[in-house]
Amino acid sequence: MPHSRQLHLGAFMRPVSLHTGAWRFPGAYPDANFNFKHLKRFVQTLEKACFDAFFMADHLAVLNMPVDALKRSHTATSFEPFTLLSALASVTERIGLIATASTTFDEPYHIARRFASLDHLSEGRAGWNLVTTSNPDAARNFGREEHMEHDERYRRAREFYDVVTGLWDSWADDAFVRDTDAGLFFDPSKLHVLDHKGKYLSVRGPLNIARPVQGWPVVVQAGSSEAGKQLAAETADAVFTAQSNLAAGKRFYADVKGRMEQLGRERDHLKILPGAFVVVGDTRDQALEKRALLDTFVHYESGIASLSIALGHDVSPFDPDGPLPEIPETNASRSSRERVIELARAERLTIRELAQRVGGYSGLQMVGTAVEIADEMEQWLVEEGSDGFNVMFPYLPEGLDDFVGKVVPELQRRGIFRRAYEGATLRDHFGLPRPGNRFFEGR
Amino acid sequence: MPHSRQLHLGAFMRPVSLHTGAWRFPGAYPDANFNFKHLKRFVQTLEKACFDAFFMADHLAVLNMPVDALKRSHTATSFEPFTLLSALASVTERIGLIATASTTFDEPYHIARRFASLDHLSEGRAGWNLVTTSNPDAARNFGREEHMEHDERYRRAREFYDVVTGLWDSWADDAFVRDTDAGLFFDPSKLHVLDHKGKYLSVRGPLNIARPVQGWPVVVQAGSSEAGKQLAAETADAVFTAQSNLAAGKRFYADVKGRMEQLGRERDHLKILPGAFVVVGDTRDQALEKRALLDTFVHYESGIASLSIALGHDVSPFDPDGPLPEIPETNASRSSRERVIELARAERLTIRELAQRVGGYSGLQMVGTAVEIADEMEQWLVEEGSDGFNVMFPYLPEGLDDFVGKVVPELQRRGIFRRAYEGATLRDHFGLPRPGNRFFEGR
C-alpha cells in the first residue's frame, strides 16, 4: 500500500551540472552544453526512473561575474530552453518538461504560443517556470539601462499571467470539429477574442494555436519575497524554492499553503519542491569525500568572486587559508550574507574552503547513503516541509546515475515514489486538476 | 556527370497543406496541425529524398479573414516554429530546418539565441526566415495599435540583422578550451561584448550560447519591394519569393543577383527559390483533374472572402456562376488585383471557380506528369529564373509522396538534383560559405 502522500521529483539541471566545478570531476562531460546526445541520455534515464519533470536552469545573459571567475566555469553558455525542451519532447514519452520564461523581457503572445506548442508537441507535458528576471545584465540585453523595480515587476507578472492564460483559453477544447462533409473546420462560437487592455499590456488575440492538451501548461514559480509568495499562492501549480533546512522549509510550506487557503484554493493544488543537492555514497564518509573532492575543482579565482558577491564585500585580500574575518553590513541580499557567515562558523571553514563551497553550491544538500537520503526526504514529506524536491545532481553522469540507481529504488520500496507513471501529462504526475476554460466553462 | 548547376529544393508547408481546401481532400490528415507524428513522417520522407530544407509557414496572428471564411479552413492554427523545428531536429539528421521570426515583434537577443540553439541542436541545420511582418493584426497582439510603416520596418530589420549576427559572433569558434587540468573553461580573449547602441535597438551582449555550428544560421528573406530586394542582396543567403511565371522569375533573379554584384557579393552566395505549387499526375489530364477536384473543397464562403480581399472589393453580391464584372480600382495591392483579373480572363473562370482558385492557391503552379514538371523546373534553372524551388504540396500526404516518388527521381536522372547529401549542414546543402567571425577573423 502506498502512503497517501507521495514525493514529487523534478530534476533541476544544467547540461554539465549546476556545480561550477563539475566539468572537472572524473567522468564528467565538459562538452555537454552543446552536445544534445548527453542531454537526451540524461532525460531518458530520468524518465525510466519516473521523475515528474526535467527543468533546465536559465538566464537571459551571461552570468554577472568578473571574467576571471567566469572563465573557470562551464555555466556561461548553454542551450536555450524552448528549443532544447522541444527537441527532448520528441525523444521522451512521459516526463514533464519545464522551461523558464520571463514576464519582464518577453511578450505574452509569444510565451502563450510557445508553451501551448510545446504542450501539443509533448502531448501534455509542458511547464512554464514564470520568472520576473532579477538580473540587471538581462535588462541591458533587452534595450533597457534601468531594470524595472521589484514590485512593479510583480504587478506586470500578474497581468502577464492573466493574459497568457486568457490566450490559452482562446479556443474551447472542442472548437475544432473538422467536419469534412459540411466544410466546417471549427465552430466559430467556440472562439474567444481576448481583447485585453491593461496597465502594462495590450493584447488582442485570439491565440493561433488550439487550447493546450493540459488546458494550461503547468505554471511554476520560484519567488520567495512577499510578492513572490502571494503570486504563487494565487496562480502557481508548483513552486521551486531554495530552503536551507527543514525548519525553514516548514515555515515556507505553511506560509504558501496558508495563503492558498485564504484565497479559497485547495492546498493540494500546488506542489512545493525545494532544491536539494544530493550526493550519494556507499557509505556516508564516501559521500562526504565526493562532495569535498568536487569542491576542490572550483578554481579559487571563481570561488572567491562568488563569495565576494554573496557577502557584498571583496574578500580576495584576505589570507585564503585563514578564517573569515568580520564582514561589515552591505547592500548584498541580507539572507545570502547571513547564510554564508553562518556556514563558515558552523563548519569552521577557511576562506578557501568557504569560497569553493559557495562558488560550487551552498544551498540545501543531502549527503550520505541512499537510505540516509531517503530518510531525509521522507522526513520532509511527512513533516510538511515539502511535497518533494527539485533534485540537483552534483556531477554528471555519475550523480544522476547514483540517484536513479540507488535513491529512487529506496523511495519506491518505502511506497513514497511511483514505480510507473499512472497518468500521461505533467498535471497527472503532479496530481493537479485540468483547468476549465474561463470563457466557455468557467473555472 | 551532373550539370554544373544543381536545383535546390525546399518544402514550404503547413501541416495540412497551404491550400485551404486540402483538409477535405481524400486521404488528408485534417488533424495534422497538432499531430506531431504526421509532421515527423513528412519531414523524414523529405529527408530521404534529400531535400535541402523544410520550411513551415507562419503568422503572428490568426489570419485576417471574416470568421465565416476562416471557419472553413484548417489554416487558423498550428504549431509554433521554434518548438516544432526543434522537435523535428531530434528525429532527422540532415535536412535543413527553417523558421520564420519577425524583426518587428521580437527581441534580437531572443532571436539570436534561439536560432543558435536550434543550430547546435541540429548540428548545423538551422535557417532564419527574416520577416518584418506586414500583418496589422499581428501588431495588435503585441501592444501596438498602429503598425510600423513599411520603410521604417525595413530600416529596423537591417539594424536587427546586424545585432543578431553580431551576437552570433560573441564567441570565437575556438573560445571553449575546456582545459580541466588548468581549470580554464574558456579563453576570455575570445569573448566579444557587442555593446550595440543604435537607432532602434540597444543590446549589450555577449550572447549566452556558443557560436552556431554554421557560424551563422542560413538567413532567408522573402521581401519583393525595393527595400526587401535590397535587404536580401545585402544580407540574405536565400530568398523565398512568389513569381507567377518564368519571365517574372527571370527579371527578379537578374535584379537581385545584379544588386549583389554591385555590392561585391558573389552571385552564387544567395539562392533564389520561388514557391511552386506542384500537382503530379500519371497523365497531364489526371493532374488537372486533381487540381480541379482540390479546388472544389474550398468552401464558397471562404473563397469569396479571399477573392474579395485580393480584389479589394466585395464581390459576394454577384452571381457566383457568372463572369467577373469590371472591378473599380481600389486600395488593394495592385499586383494582386491585376493578377486575379488576368487569371479570370485567361481561363474564362466563373466567380465561383475564381473564388475557389484564389481561396485555395493561385500563385505559380506546375501541373502535369513528373516528366513535364521536371522539364519546367529544369527550364527555370537553365534560363536563370531560379536556383531551385520552394515546393508546395497541394494535399498531404499524397502530394508529397507523389513529388518524392515521381518528380525527384526524374530530376536525379537528369543530374540536376542530388542523390545523397554531400555535406552535413544547411549551408553545405545550399553551397554557401561559412561566415568568418567579424570580431576575430574579419569576414
> Which parts of chain A are unreliable, with pLDDT below 50 for 5 consecutive residues or more?
none
The interface involving the most residues is between: A-B, 76 and 76 residues
Describe the largest sheet of chain A. Answer: 8 strands, parallel, barrel
The CATH superfamily label of the largest domain in chain A reads Luciferase-like domain
Which range best describes the helical content of chain A: under 10%, 10-25%, 25-40%, 40-55%, 55-70% or over 70%? 25-40%
**What is the number of domains of chain A?**
2
**What's the CATH class of the largest domain in chain A, please?**
Alpha Beta
Shape of chain A: globular
- Provide the CATH topology of the largest domain in chain A: TIM Barrel
- DSSP E strands of chain A, number: 13
What string, H for helix and E for strand, traces the elements of chain A in order?
Answer: EHEHHEHEHHEEEEEHEHEHHHHEHEHH
Report mean pLDDT of chain A, rounded to a whole number. 94
Task: State the end-to-end distance of chain A.
Answer: 34 Å
Query: Looking at the chains present, what oligomeric state does this protein adopt?
Result: homodimer
The CATH architecture of the largest domain in chain A would be Alpha-Beta Barrel
The structure class of chain A reads: alpha/beta
